[in-house]
Fold this sequence. Notes:
The protein is α/β, with parallel strands linked by helices. It has one domain (1-393). Helices cover 26% and strands 14% of the residues. The strands form three sheets. A nine-stranded mixed β-sheet has the order 2-1-3-9-6-10-8-7-5, sandwiched between helices. Strands 4-11-14 form a three-stranded antiparallel β-sheet, with no helix packed on it. 42% of the residues are buried. Belongs to the glycosyltransferase 25 family. InterPro entries: Collagen_mod_GT25 (IPR050757), Glyco_trans_25 (IPR002654).
Amino acid sequence: MATRKPARIFAGIGVGLLILWLLFMSRTAPAAVGLRMADWKGTGLLRNNKPGDVINDVFNASLGFEKIFVVGLPERTDRRDGIVLQAAFSDLEFEFIDGISGEKVADKAIPKTTEHDRLDNGAIGCWRAHMNALQEVVRRNLGSALILEDDADWDVRIRQQLYDMALSSQALIQPLAGTTNSFADKTYRPPPEGPPKGVPEFPINRLPKTVPATVTPYGDMWDLIWVGHCGMRMPPADSPVPRGRVVSVNDESVPEKRYLWSLAPPFTLKDEYPDHTRVVHHAQEGVCTLGYAVTQRGARALLQEVALKDVGDPVDILLRFYCEGGKGRRNHNCLAIQPALFNHHRTEGPRSAMSNIGSHEGWQDKPSTDMTRWSVRLNVERLLDGQEMWDQLPNQNPA
């Protein structure tokens, strides 16, 4: 993984000073009734970090990653129009990676065993599109990249959310301050006597002091961060996957639990935590590949484990095997966040337009974005007019 260049350090100092000034201005200005266009980019709640700290890179145009790629079929111009508009209002820069129809992928190009037939063309096309994105990360030798699907949407507060994500991931995978191989989560790199029982939890406002990250805002030794999904398990007390959790309560960007759902039961976040809680943990049994970040090391390992080994399952299941180990794959250092930060946007119109790999019937009466309160896509007209943001998932009993 490439180290940061000196020029980026000086740029980081400038960004940090700007952030501190904006934070001062926001705290001295009268409180707004709602979020307006001038405010929505956010400055983050700076928790004892200094100008020049790598964590400030979450506020840049690629959210702290070296590059953002968006995967999608070129013929889905509707999706490209939408995500270009969202990125413009979010001050994000990205490149498209053209998807491919599954029928255009030759049988000879698909690693498989004699134990199963070729997957359907939808699954094959999706797999190949993501492999093309990973191939580009490796070919360019990028230190890190965020890969999104073209129907992704996010909250206008995405930088604040990712700032908290960075604090959380560092707490889970960075060594404790003053050490090189001792970690707050004793299930991550277990001591010689073995991992402790139970599930270690760390409140985000009382995180252990760790060695500052120097490579990415999210830590120095991760392979994949699953930030957009349709469900994810939190590793339980008996899981071989590291079990540490960073818990953020009273996060107003998280909808009430009645709006939350998951395709990966049990849904621990909804069953065991209060409303407006977000949790960062190690990935287990993720569903959907709406958004994930990779390091250079992680992307190379993904090409080896997912592109060049048996394609017997859809790509999201193959990512599970990559993260947890299974079906001939080694395990890797994968983190996740619940609820996801990047979610599906569903436009008004025929439901058949919702997916390029599955079939949906009926009609979508109004546009929506799953589990996202202040959706960028749903607030485009308000952003154009400088109006307050609209909360599509309001609290049942607002304070």
